[in-house]
Amino acid sequence: LGVVVINPRNATANERHLLEIVSSLAHKAGLKSVPEVGIYPSPEINAFATGWSRNHSLVAVSTAMLSSLNRDEVEAVLGHEIAHVANGDM
Fold first, then answer.
1. Which helix (H) or strand (E) element contains residue 6?
2. Contact, 64 vs 77, CB < 8 A?
3. Contact 46, 63 (CB under 8 A)
4. What's the CA gap between 58 and 51, in Å, rounded?
5. pLDDT score of 90
6. Best exposed site among 22, 53, 77, 83 by fewest CB in 10 Å?
7. pLDDT digits (tens, 9 = 90+) for 38-75
8. How far is it, in rounded angstroms, from Cα 63 to Cα 52?
9. Cα separation of 22 and 4, whole Å?
10. What's the rounded Cα separation, in Å, for the pair 87 and 49?
11. Burial annotation 54-80 (CB, 10 A radius, 16+ → b, else e)
């Protein structure tokens, strides 16, 4: 899908915001490790969670989602994806 994982060392302000949201949600969900976060190019508003386990996971969001939804809506979608990770539904 062309997912580009966000590198925290050179993330833009918007990317850092995504990382902060995922980190906060992961801690609230009781995850021992924070999922990686990636962005992929797509005209569709979408997001997904994937990975081998709760401690080795990735949450990815589409470029359309980031350009179409406000911050609260993005946080709600990311919360949904973190719930998938916390439940092992990747």
1. none
2. no
3. no
4. 6
5. 85
6. 53
7. 999 999 999 999 999 999 999 999 999 999 999 999 99
8. 24
9. 16
10. 11
11. beebbbbbbeebeeebeeeebbebbee
Axis-axis angle for helices 71-86, 13-28 (nearest 10)? 40
Instruction: Report, as an integer, the average pLDDT of 10-20.
Output: 96
Position 40: which residue type? Y
Query: Which residue has tokens 């946080």?
Result: 75
Sequence-separated (6 or more) residues with CB below 8 Å from residue 46? 61, 62, 64, 65
Q: Are 82 and 29 in contact (CB under 8 A)?
A: yes
Q: Using alpha carbons, select from 18, 13, 86 the residue that is nearest to residue 47.
A: 18
Contacts of 71 (CB under 8 A, 6+ apart): 17
Q: What is the mean pLDDT of the chain?
A: 97
Amino acid present at 38: G
Q: Which amino acid is at 4?
A: V
Q: Which residues are catalytic?
A: 81
Amino acid type, 57? S
